[in-house]
UniProtKB/TrEMBL annotation:
This is Glycosyltransferase involved in cell wall bisynthesis. One of its GO terms (molecular function) is glycosyltransferase activity. Signal peptide: none annotated. It comes from the Bacteria. InterPro entries: Glyco_trans_1 (IPR001296), Glyco_trans_4-like_N (IPR028098). Keywords: Transferase. It comes from Filimonas lacunae. Residues 40-150 form the Glycosyltransferase subfamily 4-like N-terminal domain. One of its GO terms (biological process) is lipopolysaccharide biosynthetic process. Residues 158-300 form the Glycosyl transferase family domain.
Amino acid sequence: MKAVRLIFRKPFPTAYSIEYLFNQLHKEFIQTGIPVKGETLPHYSKGLLPRLKNLLSLFKHKNEIVHVTGDVHYALLGALRSKRMLTMHDVAFIGRTKGIARLIYKWLWVKIPVALAHKVVVISEEVKTDLLEHVTIKPGKLAVVTNFIDDIYQPVERKFNAEKPRILQIGTAYNKNVNRLIRALENLPVTLVIIGKHNSEIKELLLQCKIDYIWLSGLTLQEVHAEYLKADILTYVSLKEGFGMPILEAQSTGLPLVTSNCSAMPDVAGQGAVFVDPYNVDSIRSGIVTVIKDNALREKNTSLAYLNVRRYSRERVVADYMEIYKELSA
């Protein structure tokens, strides 16, 4: 088998999910005997010159499988002397940009890297659908390999606080739909725990709606895990997601889940959730109230959730990537 080189972006302090995922896979690949090395790009992906230097840093690799693990798709352009592989976690960033920036992202992050790649991996059917709206890919070049659940997330005994449930919300970006969630919680006796970057607009709405809240940021993996264990409900009513790891993290620990009925969420969550219309405040509120009041539904969904998470084992993800590496080595 050809040597595999996992290429990582230089991570910003608050962005490390891709690195964590592939560092775990890296360890598994080594144990299976794959000749694999990890390499972090020398510069943050910000500005033209640092990105150009990142790209050129890969030109030294020859006759390997160069696997760009996410985000810095443009770096694949520097791996012209090797087999090229790209994992794409999301392409929604194209829709969030306009004008020249949109054209740059579309061509240097999507069209050209995908054209140059010998294999493109996406993490969900949702990302696959989104990607195919922008590019045409030959059959066999595109594969879906999902993320896996970290071993830290295990079933725990829970005592549901129906009097004043603690509701966990992961993320504060626009697509996380926190504003509608807050309006849905107005006048409900709950504590909302938000993990994510601080946002003055969200804070103002929390005060306006008189929500009892706790806002946390910069947490370690262990600290985030601790918040799952303290919570009574996870709300994940995003407008759009490429995957949605909090869904599986909640399900793995037996945490009741309210999530969106669109984008990647139904596929990832299976039957172990209460689904709501994320564009409708009343629907979000109704879903949360149902979970609070219906003990039998919570127990049923927890059982279904435990069945669902079996689809996302580390072993299966490792096996899927190994098959691709073997294919590219042939």
